[in-house]
Every structure is written in C-alpha cells, then in structure tokens.
Design a protein that fits this description.
The protein starts with 22 loop residues before the first strand and ends in a 35-residue tail after the last strand. The longest helix is centred in the last third of the chain and has 16 residues. The protein contains seven helices and ten strands. It has a domain of 177 residues: Rossmann fold (3-Layer(aba) Sandwich). With 279 residues, it is of the alpha/beta class. Bound molecules: adenosine-5'-diphosphate and magnesium ion.
C-alpha cells in the first residue's frame, strides 16, 4: 500500500558530513541469558555516525560486533539505552514500525548471503520491493537496472545454488540496496569468499558508499578494515577504540602513471596513519 518513489524520502539527512548525526547510540546494553549465566554482548555502547561515513568494525570473535550490527539494523532490540536513527528514537517503535524503517532506510548484507534458495536472483532482488508494496512494473525496471549494475544480467534466472559465492553476494547486495537505503550494514561480507572475490565485493560496497550510503562493515581482515575512514574496535561488548584514518583508499587507485620518471612529484608523506592497515 505504500508506494515508495525512487527518490530518497525528504527526511533523508544531508549528504555532507557536516555534523548532523544519522545514528546516535546512547548507553546501549544487550544481555543474553543462558541458563544461570548471562553474556553482556553490548555494554554501555555510545556511538555517533554521520551520513555517508564509511566505518569498519573490528574485534575478536564474541566481542559484540554482530550484536551491534543487529541492533543498528533493527534486527535485535537493546535491553537498555536509546538508538536514534535520523533524528527519531527507533528503540521505542513497535515491531511493525521498526520493520517499516528497516525496509525504507536500512540494507543488510550477511556473511552467508541469506538468499532465499528457491527464488531466482531476480526474485531475491525484488523481494524487499514486494514486501514494500511497490508495483510489479516498477519492480521489474529496478531489478533489471540492479542486475545490469551488479554485472548479473545473465544470471537473472539462476537460483542461489547455481551461482558462485561472489555472484551470490552481489545478488545479496543488490537486494540490500534495491530500496535505496541510507544505511548499509555488512557483517563480514567477505567471510565466505576468497580474497580476490572478497575485494570485488568490498569495491562494490565502497562504490555504494561513494554514492552517499553510510557503510558499516564488520571484518576480521585488518587490510580490509584499514580501508575505511573510521575504524571501531570492539572488546567484550564495548567500543575499545574509535579511530579516524586518513586513507588513500586502495579502492580508488590513482596511481601515478610511470610514464615520466624524470617528473617524479616531490616526496609526499604517507597518507595513511593506519600502522597495520596493510600487512
Ligand atoms: P561477534 O560478532 O563479535 O563475534 P557476537 O555479537 O555474535 O560477537 O556475540 C557477542 C557475545 O554475545 C558472544 O559471547 C555470543 O556468544 C553472545 N551471543 C550473541 N548472540 C547470542 C544469542 N542469541 N544468545 C546467546 N548469546 C549470544
Ligand atoms: Mg559476528
């Protein structure tokens, strides 16, 4: 019933990182109870993210990275604290209202793709639009655009088990972005891919970020994590470090062409301050 137009809703935050918060987490707690014991998966997390940021989330296994992303993606509710998304407290919304915000504003990419096995690539990509009530004709147009844009035009009728890992993840990214979300959350999106395919997927996500979408990506890989302009390190459910990196992104290789060695530019300081960004 909601006819969502192809343009961003008016409440979309300005695209410059002028200080307007897109996301504000204050005092977020998430505790899982298992029998007698409890796990503090998120412990007093405060976080502020502005529109268009590219943030990597790193930290050891069990440190709360997925829980943080699930809370941000409205897939999980915190036990305490507040989550403000685009100026609105989304922690107090009903499940239906949360589903609507998720549908219109948030895309989620998972390590194991989470595609619907019996649906084709095209049908998987169309799914969020079906759920949002977008008319069939518009769905077809947008799916065709997405398939072409993600290099999947010749795979439209393939089911997930007929696709490679990289193709599956591209379908998943197309599905996650078909509603033109303002926020893209990726939980170890390259975890099931070989390095070369993983890098392709990262470049896709980075291109989407360059187009304006805020990107939060969990990764184990220091080299990948170091490509983001901001890196959050989690430990025992808390944000242990939050550092901004001056990155010359390997995603946009502006390598000096080796044509004129005599006109070498003057020595420049290394543009990255990430000591361990490249191993
Ligand atoms: P990470 O993604 O950093 O590996 P998680 O966010 O998945 O960590 O988990 C953080 C902690 O919360 C871990 O100790 C994990 O075992 C626990 N946890 C996560 N989800 C659940 C759940 N649904 N039930 C119980 N414990 C959970
Ligand atoms: Mg995880």
């Amino acid at each position: 019933m909601n006819t969502h137009s192809a343009t961003r809703p008016p409440e979309a935050a300005p695209d410059t990182a002028c200080g307007t918060a897109q996301i504000t987490l204050s005092g977020i707690e998430r505790v899982f109870h298992l029998g007698d014991s409890s796990v503090h998966a998120l412990a007093h997390v405060n976080l502020r993210i502005t529109p268009g940021e590219y943030v990597s989330v790193m930290g050891p296994s069990g440190s709360g990275k997925s829980t943080l992303l699930n809370v941000l993606g409205l897939l999980d509710r915190p036990d305490a604290g507040h989550y403000e998304l685009e100026g609105r407290d989304v922690t107090t919304l009903s499940p239906d209202e949360q589903a609507r915000v998720r549908s219109l504003r948030i895309g989620f990419v998972f390590q194991s793709f989470h595609l619907v096995p019996r649906l084709t690539a095209a049908e998987n990509i169309a799914l969020p639009m079906v759920l949002a009530g977008i008319p069939a004709r518009e769905r077809e147009t947008r799916v065709a655009q997405a398939l072409a844009g993600f290099g999947l035009a010749d795979r439209a009728r393939h089911r997930p088990d007929q696709l490679s890992g990289g193709q599956r993840q591209r379908v998943a990214i197309a599905r996650a972005t078909i509603m033109q979300p303002a926020l893209l959350l990726a939980d170890e999106p390259t975890g099931n891919l070989d390095r070369a395919t993983g890098e392709e997927v990262i470049r896709l996500l980075e291109a989407l970020n360059a187009g304006g979408v805020t990107l939060l990506m969990v990764t184990h890989d220091a080299a990948l994590g170091g490509r983001a302009r901001r890196r959050i390190l989690m430990q025992d459910g808390a944000i242990e470090r939050d550092e901004r990196l001056l990155v010359t992104s390997p995603a946009t290789p502006h390598e000096v062409p080796p044509e004129k060695p005599s006109e070498k530019p003057p020595e420049q300081p290394p543009a990255t301050v990430a000591p361990d960004a490249r191993a």
